[in-house]
């Protein structure tokens, strides 16, 4: 098994009122604010079919996370028993990729406003994908 | 806006009967086979709470994809009009991260069997996350 590594090149950044990890909600449905996705000029063509009202999955890179964590206390709550990190959504994980399902509220060129995004201001964006039926239905 | 880049370190590889991208089903619900996720020894502790029957999201790195694509024909079908890549699930995209929702069928140490995984044999695995309610419900 060869392993190697791969380079992620951010395609944009999050603009959000969230600036403090300790104060951030732990999951989007617990009151995360709306946020702007601000994309790089060089990916403009890739954005052209994003529309208001669309449900998308945004992948981010938690650039302030620890990559050494394999066992964590869920939601950072020391009263809860530690769990293997791949059974949690902790930002601290070997490849700290965030997965956020959001609704697009507005599209303004390279700026896309989305609802309820739990990601700190400045967080790099690495991908955007449409939501498919198979993402939401148990099979 | 500083951009930089980040290094993804694979945590394992897919073992699948799928070896040919042209012959692979385009999405998991179109008949993808069961596949083994084979993890690296150094992430063993992170796997410890994965259980049979659990629904998880597997993130992969499409190591045979093109990273230059911004506009693609959906499913590679030239008869369909080209679309911005962030409105498609094409493996060809600036950061070729695959997102697969699957059910765990068996856990055997570092080897985890999952149902219906559309990923070629040898594809690097970069993360595993539990499915949350907010991933599957429109908000």
UniProtKB/TrEMBL annotation, chains A, B:
<feature type="domain" description="TsaA-like">
    <location>
        <begin position="8"/>
        <end position="139"/>
    </location>
</feature>
<dbReference type="Pfam" id="PF01980">
    <property type="entry name" value="TrmO_N"/>
</dbReference>
<dbReference type="InterPro" id="IPR036414">
    <property type="entry name" value="YaeB_N_sf"/>
</dbReference>
<feature type="region of interest" description="Disordered">
    <location>
        <begin position="1"/>
        <end position="31"/>
    </location>
</feature>
<comment type="similarity">
    <text>Belongs to the tRNA methyltransferase O family.</text>
</comment>
<dbReference type="InterPro" id="IPR040372">
    <property type="entry name" value="YaeB-like"/>
</dbReference>
<dbReference type="InterPro" id="IPR036413">
    <property type="entry name" value="YaeB-like_sf"/>
</dbReference>
<keyword id="KW-0949">S-adenosyl-L-methionine</keyword>
<dbReference type="InterPro" id="IPR023370">
    <property type="entry name" value="TrmO-like_N"/>
</dbReference>
<protein>
    <submittedName>
        <fullName>tRNA (N6-threonylcarbamoyladenosine(37)-N6)-methyltransferase TrmO</fullName>
    </submittedName>
</protein>
<dbReference type="InterPro" id="IPR023368">
    <property type="entry name" value="UPF0066_cons_site"/>
</dbReference>
